[in-house]
Amino acid sequence: MIKKKELLFLSILALALLSGWLFLSSIKKETTIVEVRYKDDSILLTFDIDKDATYEVYGDVGVVHIEVKDGRYRVYDVDCPNHICEKMGWIDKGSVNGITCLPNGIYIFQK
């Protein structure tokens, strides 16, 4: 026969396991979609950060080249006067950071 203390312990254990399972199932998975938008908020390009590729989009000043490799992305070889977007380097999957090229009016961020 089960004692009251054992029943209480089993109830608490079951509640803890259920709570842990609910918590783990509610954690948001890392996004793999990246959006490239123009300054008017129109979407110029959408790509999967898990698929290696290179892209080019056109902004106000010229071409913005985007490289995707090993679950991260960067801007390289861009037509703009200051090249700050190139200096931002690689953006890793799951990062809240994005890349902005103000002269071209291009914004790149993970959805």
Describe the protein.
There is one protein chain. A 4-stranded antiparallel beta sheet has the order 2-1-8-7, with no helix packed on it. The chain has a 4-stranded antiparallel beta sheet with strand order 3-4-5-6. The protein is an alpha+beta fold and 111 residues long. The chain has a single domain, classed as mini-chromosome maintenance (MCM) complex, domain 2, CATH 2.60.320.10. The chain is rod-shaped and about 80 Å long. It has helices at 4-26, 84-87, and strands spanning 33-38, 43-48, 53-58, 63-69, 72-76, 91-92, 99-101, 106-110. A hairpin with a 4-residue loop joins strand 7 (99-101) and strand 8 (106-110). The mean pLDDT is 89.
How many helical stretches?
2
Poorly predicted tracts of residues? none
Order of helices and strands: HEEEEEHEEE
Please state how the strands of the largest beta sheet are arranged side by side. Answer: 2-1-8-7
Mean pLDDT reading? 89
Structural class: alpha+beta
User: Which CATH class is shown?
Assistant: Mainly Beta
Question: What is the helix content?
Answer: 10-25%
Q: Report how far apart the termini are.
A: 55 Å
Q: Return the CATH architecture.
A: Sandwich
Largest sheet, in brief, is: 4 strands, antiparallel
**Rg estimate, integer Å:** 23 Å
Q: Assign an overall shape.
A: rod-shaped
β-strand amount = 35-45%
Count of distinct strands: 8
Number of domains: 1
Q: And the CATH topology? A: mini-chromosome maintenance (MCM) complex, domain 2
> In CATH, what is the homologous superfamily?
N-utilization substance G protein NusG, insert domain
Assembly state (oligomeric): single chain
